[in-house]
Amino acid sequence: MSEPIPMAEKSLPAPARSVDGDQGRQTNAPATGSGVAMPAFVDTAAQSFTAGFHSARMFMLHITPRFIVNNSSNIIGFSHVLTEMMMFKSSNKDGKLVQNPKNPINWVWEPFKTVYEDTFRRSTAGATSLKEIFKGNPFKNFYKHVTDLEAATQAVRNLPANAGKPLNEIKLGNSWVARSTLIGLTAWSLSTLIPEKKEKPEEIERMAIMRRVHPVHYVAERLGQALWVPGWREHKRQIIGLLVIMTGFTGFIGSWRNRSVHPVTGVQSYSFNRSYLATSIISLLSGLPLLFASDEQRGYGGYGGISLFRVPFLTTSNLTKYRNLEPGRHWYLGSSVSFQTENVFQALIGGAEKLKDGTIVDHTPVREEAKEKAAEIRAERREERAGNHPSASPLTRVSHVDEKREKLYATPHEAAPQHQPA
Hints:
The chain has about 425 residues and is mostly helical. It contains 18 helices and six strands. The protein has helices at about 40-65, 65-70, 70-90, 105-125, 130-135, 140-145, 150-155, 175-195, 200-215, 215-225, 235-255, 275-290, 295-305, 310-325, 330-350, 365-385, 395-410, 410-415, and strands at about 5, 30-35, 35, 260, 270, 360. About 35% of the residues are buried. Mean pLDDT is about 80; it is low at about 1-35, about 120-125 and about 415-420.
């Protein structure tokens, strides 16, 4: 079972066990990675960072109400939804989600209509068709379609709606960023609406063993959990992670659809933003722990931690947008600040579970036990391949394999005692 960590342990020496389950071991030996010794100053810096992050997380969990900690995915998800609407305004060609604000009904209907049109209808008119993409080498054609900024700009200018307009009156939109934002809006709406359900220790152990013994099976099962709609109540983290990865991919393409305005003529044209490209790649990577982490603590916390690496690139990306006088740059700046503030809280309290007595549930014992069981199973496999294990005998192999499967893939429901009829 999970072991609660008393709040009195909020100041632990480096690199003590962190609240989200990571376990450090104090040692004077240099840190190693893949068998290669790291320099002493790197080891010291890593331990200092781990201790500082642990203290900050414990402090936040101590002062944060239990309701917020245990429902952080819903609360932070709702905040993300509002920020995504700001991002929509930054990519919209005129920055307006509501065309007629005097009618209250339009505040409900028109934002969805504008998002749909900017994401699909306006972006498809005059665009390269799928037939042209798949004619010849589809990868080369798609790359050219994305990176040919002059052709993309001219395609918008050639739209029937822009016929006869002076160039300085033609406004460009970023349909790929609009798609990215729409996917993100879907992800965080699910995060907001689906109630938080903490994972059971038995399920965490089962998946942790599978991750080490059958990594391909593990990846397939996580993807299945993300795609199986009826199971989103228990596995909403997986579908959020998959959508965040898609958000990063579409944002990656949108890096070639940033807009610049000529300071004299006012003519808009598409431009490439390297910093935006970097932030999109980090966004894609941040979805991996949500989808594939062994438990919620590492999933949500890992997402927030990875997302914070966007900060330096967001700074240069905003500077580029202001230098190019890009429409919607103020909304992009606001959404950048809002997203990163939310990611800080995601890294500090995401996926945590706070009990009524103020303690924090730690999944380290569960993961450590799963690690030992997985090591035993791998050792048995090596012995089988070497012919030294009793299961190598044809008479005992089948029963031994069945026993291992039952041990590895038993679900919490199967492990529960059966009710006997009265």
